[in-house]
Amino acid sequence: MAAVTGRPRRFASAVTRWLTEPVPLGRLAAFRTLVYLFVIADVVVFTPWARAHADVPGELYRPLLIGRLLPLPTPTPTVVWSVFAALLVSAAVAATGRLPRLAGTAVALLYLEWMIIAFSYGKVDHDRFGLLVALAVLATVGRARHGDSTRSEAAGWALRATQLAVVATYFLAAFAKLRWGGLEWLTSATLTWAIIRRGTFLTEPLLQAPWLLIAAQFGIVAFELLSPLVFVLRQRWRYAAVGLFYSFHLVSFVTITISFLPHLVAMTSFLPLERVRPVVWARRLASRRERAGGGAAGHPVTVTGDPPVGGPGESPHRASPQ
Amino acid sequence: MSTETPVTPLTTRGRLIRLVVTVVAVGLLLAGTFWGEDDHFPFGPFKMYASAVDPDAPTIDTRLEATDAAGATVLLTERNTGIRRAEVEGQIDRFRAEPELLQVAADAYARRNPDAPPLAEVRIVIRWHEVRDFTPTGEWEEEVVATWRP
């Protein structure tokens, strides 16, 4: 490598430090499990229409650029159901944390193909760039145990890349509005149109108050343009900003029934997920019940498996090495 | 607390690869945003609701519907055909140019509803809701864009 010196080099190393800021492996493990379980839920429950493309004759299949380059087969029932089955199996393995690179790579590739099957019939959705990035980068992190407080730069990059993708979805959407709608977008009837097409009984009254919808359009663009500030906020404010992001989607779900669910899952990359320990909590509850039952009263009950993680008010601990 | 926990660092090479991958992905995404189209998925522009809708222009509401052999009108949805409304809209120019393509909807319906009466006609209908000064007037007109009969 040619020697890069001086200011550019310092800048590059500062950027790299930020991109790979270490995070606890327990957080990565929790995020990984959540993302892969979501993939299963998405394929089975949330986007049944992707699977339904198995029954749509191939004439309607207009492969996206990536599908033409690779080139991927025109979906038939066999193709769709094979990808479906392989995706379920690999996501189930990956959700357990086993074979993280192999199963993770399989899920990333199969889910990409699943999306090509979903979006090659005339409509591309824009709600899952963050999830696709998460799937791609999760496969680059090796083993990560639930509850492990060891911090890892590889895990840090995976979460940072996902966060960047999530925020880019907002920030760059403002520029897409400028490109397609122009500045007139702000005072256009786009939300009116959205409500006529997808509104609920809750939103009917809003159609009588166009000024409110225009104000909301200004608010949306301001929100999108300011979203990158989430990266410079201090911890507590950063969580507040992420809470604001989530509430934005709650409002759009209630008003125009658009959920952006995959994006919401990717956005958990901002949260200290290592504190969410359903398995440990369940075991603790079970052992407490056992003690209350009287049999082993007075004897400390060890919770087998992963050590508990330091939540607020708990003392820090060191995870035992694997 | 965080200073006490051990850190697993990346190798210099690992760090460099990740920096390069990030820069390339950001570059592709920026190019997609300013010059790309949906076709460039996953790096296409985030153009959900990005067009500016004229507050005095009629609002488009497209549907795919059919008349079955028993004479009943059937609304064709993603549930009973696997074809989404937005997909009909996305390929509407094709359907306009070759209405016989609507046979795929009849075939998909037959596959998903083997016990239902076959479809005798499939059509794309656009209901144009009249809008004046941001407010729907409640009036609408319907336009049949394409029709297919076996």
Number of helical regions of chain B: 5
Uncertain residue segments of chain A: 295-322
Greatest interface: A-B, 75 and 65 residues
Order of helices and strands of chain B: EHEEHHHHEE
Can you summarize this structure?
The complex is a heterodimer of chains A (322) and B (150). By secondary structure, chain A is mostly helical.
Describe it for me?
The complex is a heterodimer of chains A (322) and B (150). Chain A has helices spanning 6-19, 25-46, 48-52, 65-69, 77-95, 100-119, 129-138, 153-180, 190-198, 210-226, 235-256, 261-266, 278-292, and strands at 23-24, 151-152. With 322 residues, chain A is an all-alpha fold. Chain A has one domain (21-274). In chain A, helix 6 (100-119) packs antiparallel against helix 7. The longest helix of chain A has 28 residues, at 153-180. The model of chain A is unreliable at 295-322 (pLDDT under 50). The mean pLDDT of chain B is 93. In chain B, strands 3-2-4-5 form a four-stranded antiparallel sheet. In chain B, 33% of the residues lie in helices and 29% in strands. Chain B has helices spanning 12-35, 78-81, 85-90, 92-97, 103-112, and strands at residues 7-8, 59-68, 73-76, 119-132, 135-148. The chains are: A mainly alpha (322), B alpha+beta (150). Strand 2 (151-152) of chain A pairs parallel with strand 1 (7-8) of chain B, so a sheet runs across the interface.
